[in-house]
Structures are given as C-alpha cells and as structure tokens.
Amino acid sequence: MKFRLHRTKCGMSQTALGKLLGKATLRLVSLWESDKVQPGPRYLAKLKTFLATDASALRWSAYRVGLVNKRKRHKG
How far is CA 8 from the centre of its chain? Predict the structure, then answer.
C-alpha cells in the first residue's frame, strides 16, 4: 500500500498516523504498510481520506494538533 509514502511525506510517525485514524496501534499501521494485513472496515474511510488529502495540508493539521513536531533546521 502507499500509506508509508504518504505518511512520510506528511512527516508523521506510524504512531501519529494511528492516533489520527482513531487508536490504531503502531503494530497495526506497520502491518498495513508491509501489506501483511489489510485495513478493516473501521479504518477504511479514514484511510481513504488520509490518502486523498494533500501532504502539506495534513502536515500542518497534524502539527497544529500536536501529532508531529516542527522540524529543526540545521545550521551549516
């Protein structure tokens, strides 16, 4: 599945995605990403919305509610 690619574009961890979807565990998200388990009906609608939403909009929303941290800039 393309969950992992979209999740990483959003800067979200598996734990943060699980919280966004409503109490999905890190293990469950990991199993979805590796195609070992298909998402059940409880999560399908939210996953479809997650995948259809622009990554930058999701990143901002997740940051505002505390699911992701603001990235630190490197001084170089």
Answer: 7
Taking only the tens of pLDDT, the chain with its 76 residues reads: 588 998 888 888 999 899 888 889 999 999 999 999 999 999 999 989 888 988 888 888 888 878 777 654 445 4
Instruction: Give 3-state DSSP helix, strand, coil % of the chain, rounded to 5.
Output: 60, 0, 40
Tokens of 49: 């919305």
Cα–Cα–Cα angle for 50, 15, 31, nearest 5°?
Answer: 80
Question: What's this model's pTM, rounded to 2 decimal places?
Answer: 0.77
**Following DSSP, what letter does each residue of 34-63 receive, concatenated?**
TTSSPPPHHHHHHHHHHHHS-HHHHHHHHH
Top-tier CATH class for 3-64: mainly alpha
